[in-house]
Amino acid sequence: MLRLRAARMLVAAALAAASAGLVLTTPAAAGERAVVLEVDGAIGPPLADYVVRELEAAKPGQVGIVILRMNTPGGLDSSMRKIISAILASRVPVVTYVAPNGARAASAGTYIAYASAIAAMAPGTNIGAATPVQLGGNPLLPSDQKQQQKQDKSTEPADTETRKIVNDAIAYIRGLAAVNGRNADWAADAVRSAASLPAAEALSLHVIDVIADDVPDLLRKVDGRTVTVAGKPQRLATVDLVVTTVPPDWRTELLALVTDPNVAFILMLIGIYGLIFEFLNPGAVAPGTIGAISLLVALYGLAFIPINYAGAALVLLGVALMIAEAHIGAFGALGVGGIAAFVVGALMMFPVQVPGLTLSAGVIIGAAIASGLLLVVVLAALLRSRRKPVVTGSEALIGAEAEIVSWQGAEGRVRVSGEIWLARSNASLAAGRRVKIVGRDGLVLQVEDAKRI
User: Fold this and answer.
1) Domain range spanning residue 423?
2) Where is 286: in which H helix or E strand?
């Protein structure tokens, strides 16, 4: 009896263990995929919208795992947090895979890697440099504070606002580290002193979970691991998954193009110059239409980009001064000042500390040269117009030829430009003769015989 009871208990325990094993190690269902999303470039609103949309579309039973193949210099805090919220809420395991060789997960990329169920890197990649920056243009950790913190890691920035931002970022990444059991101390150091690690050191310090050569190698190495998905433990079954790459669609690509600082800046200039040309030449239509569309698209893109409004004001002031030079003709003083204001404003307009969202020096130089050449062309046309003889008004009569309608003595009537004028001359003239106007006294023209001149 005791043996029978013991046998029953052993069978029950075995069945329970087998059931638990089935829950945790169920093989990949037929048709389940490993979805690869390309996170390449600065993390901004378009990229965040793409990642969040695909994570929400990934359903258990259809998608076994989502891989964020990442190569990013960082990006905006708001876009980063949007992606992280979607990762933490996803019912499908999310892997951040820093690849290909030579890629990096800097700044915002580090936070996203820490939020993912699995953090992986390809050989020859790096992760870190997660120090947040102010959008006003000054780094949160000045060089002297960085040097002091290398000597004493407990030192905090002296500025209260800076300290608040850094401490908030440290608390945030420590919380992400706790969710997935990663190295929280190194994460805090990456925020506090912009520390960075190559793949091998990141693995040894438990910053990442695996080093993989490619996506198939990654799927083999993470198979069987237990991770936290939406707050619950789950064992991965990834060996038999079919890999499907879902690149950004045309909408994401278009938004990414529009929100590129270089493109938005060029569109803004096209818009400004197009509208100015239309105002100076009413009825041209095309410059005004192109300018209005370009300016509206530029403003839409700039709404998603952190900009310095003082720099934007200087750019507009520079354009205004160049236009004033073309109209007033201040012998280049306004034009030179306008170009200087334009260049300085362009340099200030986009904070250089925001990774991936800076203005190219080539674009600034090219735009300044183009504006300068346009100014030179306008000034040259203005000088040529001033040298031309007057063709309207009373001054246009001097030097013009007229035909005598009637003449008596020293006076008579002449026809000039279809009008009849009184005329005087020291010579005796006859009707039908051609004369040249040499002066004017009120409403009387002074003429001389055209043949004698």
Assistant:
1) 394-449
2) helix 286-302
**9 inside domain:** no
User: Is residue 425 annotated as a catalytic residue, yes or no?
Assistant: no
pLDDT bracket for residue 393 (50, 70, 90): low
Tell me which of 79, 90, 107, 116 is the catalytic residue: 107
Residues 307, 412, single domain; the answer is no
Minimal CA–CA distance to 162: which of 139, 195, 188? 139
CATH of the domain at 220: 3.90.226.10
Q: Is residue 425 part of a domain?
A: yes
Same domain for 370 and 399? no
C-beta separation of 26 from 58 below 8 A:
no
Per the listing, tokens 């691991």 go with: 225
Domain membership flag for residue 198: yes
The string over 221-245, giving b where at least 16 C-beta atoms fall within 10 Å of a residue's C-beta and e elsewhere, is: bbbebebebeeeebebbbeebebee
Catalytic residue (choose from 164, 204, 406, 428): 164
**Integer Cα distance of 289 and 275 in angstroms:** 8
Q: Which of 224, 252, 280 corresponds to the end of one domain?
A: 252
Amino acid letter, 349: M
* Contact present, 75 and 357 (Cβ < 8 Å): yes
Cα–Cα distance list, 15 to 9, 19, 159, 183, 246 (Å): 10, 6, 62, 38, 41
The predicted-structure confidence for 28-46, as pLDDT tens digits, reads as follows 554 589 999 999 988 989 9
Same-domain status, 267 and 365: yes
Q: Is the pLDDT of residue 2 over 90?
A: no
Distance in angstroms (rounded) separating the CA atoms of residues 54 and 63: 11
Q: What is the pLDDT of residues 395-451, one digit of tens each?
A: 667 778 888 888 888 888 988 877 888 888 888 788 888 888 888 887 888 888 777
Q: Give residue 434's identity as a one-letter amino acid code.
A: R
Q: Is 362 helix (H, G, I), strand (E, B) or coil?
A: helix
On whether the pTM is more than 0.85, the answer is no
Which of 252, 274, 300 corresponds to the end of one domain? 252
Signed CA dihedral, 111, 116, 120, 121: sign only: negative
- Extract the tokens encoding 358: 């800076």
Catalytic annotation on 107?
Answer: yes
**Residue 273 DSSP one-character state:** H
Tell whether 292 and 423 lie within a shared domain: no
> Is residue 297, in this structure, part of any structural domain at all?
yes
